[in-house]
Specification:
By secondary structure, the protein is an all-alpha fold. Helix content is 41%, strand content 0%. The radius of gyration is 24 Å and the shape is elongated. The protein starts with a helix and ends in a 6-residue tail after the last helix. 11% of the residues are buried.
């Protein structure tokens, strides 16, 4: 058993020396063409761009009352989104206006 470690170390060193270096891969993404729904306070939703694309945000269907507040709070509390307590109602107000609750 004592000779297994030196052999393993030598094998790993040899494998590392023979491995090809990793090359940087350049990817050209398409330009963002989506826009947020028009509503006052759209600049407040800019915080959402940290994790979500404009296309993802703008494709959201109308949701029931209270949905956006719960979603924004979930992003902060569960996923750690760096949104201050003061920003939450501003973002929710925009989302409620731009993506209004479903009519019954």
């Amino acid at each position: 058993m004592p000779t297994a470690f030196p052999r393993l170390a030598a094998a790993l060193a040899l494998a590392g020396a023979c491995a090809a270096p990793a090359l940087a891969l350049e990817i050209d993404l398409p330009k963002e063409t989506a826009t947020l729904h028009a509503a006052s306070g759209a600049q407040n939703a800019a915080q959402c761009y940290m994790c979500h694309s404009v296309d993802y945000i703008s494709s959201q269907p109308p949701m029931p009352a209270g949905f956006w507040e719960a979603e924004v709070k979930k992003m902060v509390q569960t996923y750690g989104a760096p949104i201050t307590a003061e920003q939450i109602p501003l973002i929710v107000r925009y989302l409620d206006e731009a993506y209004p609750p479903q009519k019954k």
